[in-house]
Amino acid sequence: MTSTVVYNGDLRTTCTHLKSNSAFETDAPTDNHGKGERFSPTDITSTSLATCMLTVMGIKARTMGFDLNDIKVEVLKIMKSDPRRIGGIELTFHIPGPLKDIDEKTKAILKNTGETCPVMKSLHPDIAIKLDWGEWS
Question: Which of 18, 30, 62, 98 has a beta carbon 3.0–4.6 Å from 36's, enabling a disulfide?
Answer without folding.
Answer: 30
